[in-house]
Amino acid sequence: MATITNTRDDTRFDCEAGDTVLRAALRAGVGMPYSCNTGSCGNCRFDLVEGTVSHLRDDPPGLSEKDRARNRWLGCQAVPNGDCAVKFRAMEEYVPIVTPERRTAELVSVDKITRDISDFAFHMDGAGDFRPGQYALLTVPGVEGARAYSMSNLPGDTWNFMIKHAPGGAATDWLFNAAPGATLEIDGPFGTAFLREESDRDIVLLAGGSGLSPMVSIALGAVAAGLDKGRRIHLFYGGRETKDLCTPDILGAAKDKVGFTAALSAPEGGADWQGPTGLVHEVARNKMGEALKGCDIYFAGPAVMSSAVQQMAHAAGVPMDRLFFDEFY
Ligand SMILES: Cc1cc2nc3c(=O)[nH]c(=O)nc-3n(C[C@H](O)[C@H](O)[C@H](O)COP(=O)(O)OP(=O)(O)OC[C@H]3O[C@@H](n4cnc5c(N)ncnc54)[C@H](O)[C@@H]3O)c2cc1C
Ligand code: FES
After folding, report:
1. Residues 33, 67: one domain?
2. Rounded distance, CA 76 to CA 98, Å?
3. What range does the domain containing 6 cover?
4. Could you tell me if the CB of 163 is within 6 A of ligand 1?
5. pTM here?
């Protein structure tokens, strides 16, 4: 166990052996800024003032040469080698509502959704709370570094994840070949792009490919909280070809309470596709028109989609504080 001191506000927190500075901070209720938790975004950078740390990932994309020269490290990758003094600006919005925990989980079922997306259900060792829209870190046996996957269901002792098979991907190759009974470690929940129940605005959910998982969870959470009574909830899902299509059945019993539009960006020649064609955010903008300005917009998908949605929202006059997302890498 190491003690970490944040010299910016003189707070202290403990870090268990093998844990990272970021995850230890969040477990202790300290609002250290972050997003991806896997070394890519750079949001969790801190200054190392005293002591030494080691990075889990040798060359994380979220850290530049300039950062290294300034003795800056990534909170999600840095494991302290002993007591340390660090410096970062803690922020209230990152204080976790549910304290993340590491648990063993057992794969109980895998259900195919599209040609390359399946829903994986894991039974958790100890019931686990989370907010719809959050994600967890899965440590896959034999794969270096945990991967982030967003939950697709509601909290309980089973956490589901809709996962897209990345061609040649280390973690997804393992997952798509795993059989029920396989076990792994799941750490979570993490992420700040969760359902805001207190808002009274209509809800637009934009899912690009692998971003389906958190959008389904938010739709289910909104219906479970009765938000469909006074607000419209609409899920837009974007795929490329007809093989990427899914149906509103992914929303289970909530499907009659949530609007659903599937769009294809490049339907294959000869396909009998009658639905909208184009990128999912463009389709949403056309369908919603001026009403989009008054909505809370949640979105998830590849990084390229994330920046396109932000540009579209800006052009449509949607205030930035109505956008909720975690970058996928
Ligand atoms: C917040 C968040 C939520 C996500 N939610 C989903 C989801 O719900 N469904 C879904 O299908 N995908 C999701 N992803 C993407 C997912 O985490 C993986 O990137 C994807 O499944 C590819 O993993 P792979 O191991 O199969 O592919 P690979 O090509 O083997 O690995 C690629 C990913 O792993 C990361 N990586 C590589 N080495 C390491 C390492 N040593 N330590 C840590 N990370 C490493 C890379 O940065 C890259 O993101 C999410 C990503 C983020 C950041
Ligand atoms: S690099 Fe650490 S949270 Fe993204």
Report:
1. yes
2. 18
3. 2-94
4. yes
5. 0.97
Question: Domain tally for the chain?
Answer: 3
- Ligand 2 pocket test: pick from 21, 26, 32, 38 the residue with the most ligand atoms within 8 Å of its Cβ: 38
In this structure, the answer to whether residues 222 and 306 fall within a common structural domain is yes
Q: What is the 3-state secondary structure (H, E, C) of 50-117?
A: ECCEEECCCCCCCCCHHHHHCCEEECCCEEECCCEEEECCCCHHHCCCCCCEEEEEEEEEEEECCCCE
Residues 237 and 314 in one domain: yes
Mean pLDDT of 22-33: 98
Within-domain flag for 15: yes
pLDDT tens per residue, range 34-46: 999 999 999 999 9
- Last residue in a domain, options 94, 109, 142: 94
Q: Whose CA is nearest to atom 6 of ligand 1?
A: 149
Ligand nearest to the CA of 327: 1
Task: Output the six-digit token pair for 5.
Answer: 């001191």
Point out the domain boundary residue: 190, 219, 235: 190
| pLDDT tens digits, 254-308 | 999 999 999 999 998 877 899 999 999 999 999 999 999 999 999 999 888 989 9
Crossing angle of the two packed helices 280-288 and 303-315, in degrees rounded to 10: 20
Nearest CA to ligand 1 atom 45: 145
Q: What CATH number should be reported for the domain holding residue 264?
A: 3.40.50.80
Task: Report the relative pairing of strands 101-112 and 183-190 from DSSP bridges.
Answer: antiparallel
Residues 16 and 73 in one domain: yes
Task: Please name which ligand lies nearest the alpha carbon of 64.
Answer: 2
Task: Write out residues with Cβ below 6 Å of ligand 2.
Answer: 34-37, 39-44, 62, 74-76
Distance 147 CA to ligand 1 centre (A): 5
268 falls within a domain: yes
